[in-house]
Design brief:
The complex is a heterodimer. Chain A is of the alpha/beta class. Chain A is 43% helix and 21% strand. Chain A contains four helices and seven strands, in the order H-H-E-E-E-E-E-H-E-H-E. In chain A, helix 3 packs parallel to helix 4. Chain B folds into two domains: 45 residues; 68 residues, Nucleotidyltransferase, domain 5 (2-Layer Sandwich), CATH 3.30.420.270. Chain B is built from five helices and seven strands; from the N terminus they run αααβββββαβαβ. Chain B has a five-stranded mixed sheet with strand order 5-4-3-6-7, with helices on one face. The chains are: A alpha/beta, B alpha/beta. Chains A and B meet through helix 2, strand 1, strand 2, strand 6 and helix 4 of A and helix 3, strand 1, strand 2 and helix 5 of B.
């Protein structure tokens, strides 16, 4: 009897714990996550023991698992990438380059893209990885 | 005539109840608040990324560096490793690098994937070589047949 009376008293009070938890989750995701523009190609980066700092690079090249390329968010062909890179190099010679490649892509493909970059005049670049055990 | 004031509910109580109800309503409604918070929660869950990025510095290979007379050539296939033409395991690679240095070669290593080895496999070997003290690792492609 008493129980029922209590339940009927106030609907709002029953969802207060729910709101508390949802607020905590919201604050957690706001603080712990990092908002970033999502890549046009799905990339599952290779695991590595390397400890290099992920600094921001000027130009980012993506290589998907099926070998497709993207430069700064736009999917393009090999020839187009070479042309764009050459253009970029002539405009800004000291730009920094990063490479995000899928761990499952053939290594030959990655090296082919690196040779393409060499052809456009890029001297060195940074490969993005994630730590092991993730 | 006289019965009228008696049948009325006590006025104070009625006002009190109205005040508390009105007070609750005039605050932010709980249901819309929860709706908005849920939407924000879903947005942050979907939009935020928790990947912990690390980087490896790579030298872009010159197309003609493949010859590499002085360098130690490491070939990486999907299920094995060849150092200077001999099969080795992943754990022996540090010793082989040490031998090469002792034999007078500098620590330059040419890493060449063969037979469709994946980037993950290449990075694994690259990690081992870096841990073993290889200073200058260059990546080359298998010469097209």
């Amino acid at each position: 009897m008493r129980f029922e009376a209590r339940r009927a008293r106030n609907d709002d009070e029953r969802i207060l714990p729910l709101i508390n938890v949802v607020f905590l989750l919201l604050i957690f995701f706001m603080l712990a996550g990092r908002l970033a523009v999502s890549d046009p190609l799905a990339i599952e980066p290779p695991h590595s023991a390397s400890q290099g700092e992920p600094l921001v690079r000027d130009v980012q090249i993506l290589i998907a698992k099926d070998g497709r390329l993207a430069l700064d968010g736009a999917v393009m062909s090999d020839a187009e990438l070479g042309a764009r890179l050459a253009e970029r190099m002539s405009a800004e010679a000291d730009a920094t380059y990063s490479l995000k490649a899928d761990g499952g892509v053939e290594a030959d493909r990655v090296i082919a893209v690196m040779e393409l970059m060499r052809g456009a005049g890029v001297e060195n670049l940074t490969l993005f990885t994630v730590p092991q055990g993730g | 005539m006289r019965a009228l004031p008696d049948t009325r509910p006590p006025p104070r109580l009625a006002i009190e109840e109205h005040a508390t109800r009105g007070g609750r309503r005039s605050l932010i409604g709980l249901t819309p608040l929860v709706d908005v918070v849920f939407i924000l929660l879903v947005f942050f869950m979907l939009a935020s990324s928790f990947l912990d990025w690390r980087t490896i510095e790579l030298n872009v290979p010159a197309a003609d560096a493949a010859a590499g007379g002085e360098a130690l050539v490491v070939e990486v296939s999907t299920d094995g490793l060849m150092v200077a033409g001999e099969p080795v395991t992943l754990d022996q690679i540090a010793a082989r690098l040490g031998d090469a240095v002792a034999a007078g070669l500098d620590r330059q290593v040419v890493l060449r994937p063969v037979g469709g080895a994946s980037l993950q496999r290449l990075v694994l070997v690259l990690d081992r070589l870096t841990a073993a003290g290889a200073a200058d690792v260059s990546l080359v492609r298998q010469a097209a047949p």
